[in-house]
Write a structure and sequence with these properties.
By secondary structure, the protein is of the alpha/beta class. The chain has helices at 12-23, 39-44, 46-64, 80-104, 163-166, 183-195, 214-226, 282-285, 321-335, 364-369, 385-390, 418-430, 435-440, 450-459; strands at 2-8, 28-32, 108-111, 113-118, 121-125, 131-141, 145-147, 160-161, 175-179, 198-203, 230-233, 235-242, 247-253, 259-264, 266-269, 273-275, 308-310, 349-351, 356-361, 374-380, 396-402, 408-415. The strands form 5 sheets. Strands 1, 2, 3, 4, 5, 6 and 17 form a 7-stranded mixed beta sheet that branches. Strands 8-15-9-10-11 form a 5-stranded parallel beta sheet. The N and C termini lie far apart (66 Å).
């Protein structure tokens, strides 16, 4: 079998790349080692975690807020098996949709582990032990990433778990320790905290969600502490030991002799992810990964081997599904002779806790480091009528604009529907709008997005109306 393009990996980057290639008239194949398409994101990442996040938020709202709205409930309880069942149904529906899209676009699916035999030849090892080889003019590597789990943490998939296992716990744990205060750990931590689990987060750095705006991180930490999450910042884990029903986590304060242990039902290891290029046969075609295991690429996402490209988590940059999707489209259009472009500064980052956190562009810390003159406009959700009406008053919107030109340089939000609201910031920044432009746009009342308008007004000569 011979193809114009073969994509290895069917996560968001891979399947989007395959569809775009097919749309452009290229004979396309996709190789997936697992039994279902969709990669980490659709099967054990973005989609199932959001399903649980929504379910747990409904329960938390019923438990904590319904009475404020005049809604009285009796015998409220968590049915964890049903919650997991619904999550699985959401995954099945989403994955099933991918099979339809592959068929619709005449993309051939090869089930098995793909590895390079040569630059234009790929061997596919199937589950039944057989192998087949295909030929391809171009190849797109989109194999994604796996959780980083140091051997010292004794990862057993039972008591010491990663996000994959955390999505399938069938009873509400009494206590859970989370190693790492990043996006994945905080999202899953918030799921179980809402359901009643005592959550303790151990983070080596002096703040959570490093890389995102510091003000937004403080707002999120404050909100999570209100639902009982305990944070041990500037602490490190020195040992993890699991028994049949418990786990003990040894913790030491950074730059100190102060140490203690935490006993819990589970320890969730969430300290990052590594590029997944295991047994891909890169050495057979002369590709060497860098010190972090990433595949080096040029501005067109081409590797050092002609005709071989790489996208998503296996290359430089943030490990985000939507980044991988944009890169998949870029490579497909490049192969077809077009001249696409990605502005990585304008790829938003989101944390799906509640309140949500979202940001795009430069943070205040980055602007200071780059000596770029800027001004700041902030507006708290507690001053917003729509937020008060929904009892979602935690957080703020922050707009950063250039001191001289007024061009928007960054938008950062902690608050209700921040994940959806950030698209307005992205759109404005794509067209290099000013804070004044955003401030003069009419925003429907009452909406959460009015907070963005007010923050833009605050950045424009401190003109916010409602504060």
């Amino acid at each position: 079998m011979k193809y114009d393009v073969t994509v290895i990996g069917s996560g968001p980057g891979g399947y989007v790349a395959a569809i775009r290639c097919a749309q452009l008239g290229l004979k396309t194949a996709i190789i997936e080692r697992y039994s279902t398409l969709g990669g980490t994101c659709l099967n054990v990442g973005c989609i199932p975690s959001k399903a649980l996040l929504d379910s747990s938020e409904h329960y938390h709202a019923a438990h904590e807020k319904f009475s404020q709205h005049g809604i009285e409930l009796k015998d409220l309880k968590v049915n964890m098996p049903q919650m997991i069942k619904r999550k699985n149904e959401v995954v099945e529906q989403t994955v099933g949709g991918l099979n339809y899209l592959m068929k619709k676009n005449n993309i051939t699916i090869h089930q098995g582990h793909g590895s390079f035999v040569g630059p234009n030849r790929i061997s596919i090892a199937k589950a039944d032990g057989s192998t087949e080889e295909i030929e391809t003019d171009k190849t797109i590597i989109a194999t994604g990433s796996k959780p980083i789990v140091p051997a010292a943490f004794n990862y057993d998939k039972k008591r010491v778990i990663t996000s994959t296992e955390a999505l399938n716990i069938t009873e509400v744990p009494k206590r859970m320790v989370i190693i790492g205060g990043g996006v994945i750990g905080l999202e899953l931590g918030s799921v179980y905290a809402r359901l009643g689990t005592e959550i303790e987060v151990v983070e080596f750095m002096d703040r959570i969600i490093p890389g995102m705006d510091a003000d937004c991180a403080k707002e999120l930490q404050r909100a999570m502490q209100k639902i009982g999450v305990k944070f041990h910042l500037k602490h490190q884990v020195t040992g993890v030991k699991a028994s049949k029903n418990k786990v003990k986590v040894d913790v030491q304060k950074r730059d100190s002799d102060t140490a203690f242990s935490i006993e819990a039902d589970y320890c969730l290891v969430s300290i990052g992810r590594r590029p997944y290029t295991d047994n891909l046969g890169l050495e057979a075609i002369g590709i060497q990964t860098d010190e972090k295991g990433r595949i080096p690429v040029d501005d067109h996402l081409a590797t050092s081997v002609p005709g071989v490209y790489a996208i998503g988590d296996v290359i430089r940059g943030a490990m985000l599904a939507h980044k991988a999707e944009e890169e998949g489209v870029l490579v497909a259009e490049t192969i077809a002779g077009q001249h696409p472009h990605i502005d990585y500064n304008l790829i938003p980052n989101v944390v799906y806790t509640w309140p949500e956190v979202a940001g795009v562009g430069r943070t205040e810390e980055q602007l200071k480091a780059e000596n770029i003159p800027f001004k700041v406009g902030k507006f708290p959700f507690k001053a917003l009528g729509r937020a008060r009406a929904s009892t979602d008053t935690e957080g703020l919107v922050k707009v950063l604009a250039h001191q001289q030109t007024d061009e928007i340089l960054g938008v950062h939000i902690t608050g209700p529907r921040a994940a959806d609201m950030i698209a307005e910031g992205v759109a404005l920044m794509e067209f290099r709008a000013s804070a004044e432009d955003a401030a003069r746009m009419s925003h429907a009342h009452p909406t959460y997005t009015e907070a963005f308008k007010e923050a833009a007004l605050a950045a424009t000569d401190n003109r916010a109306i409602h504060i």
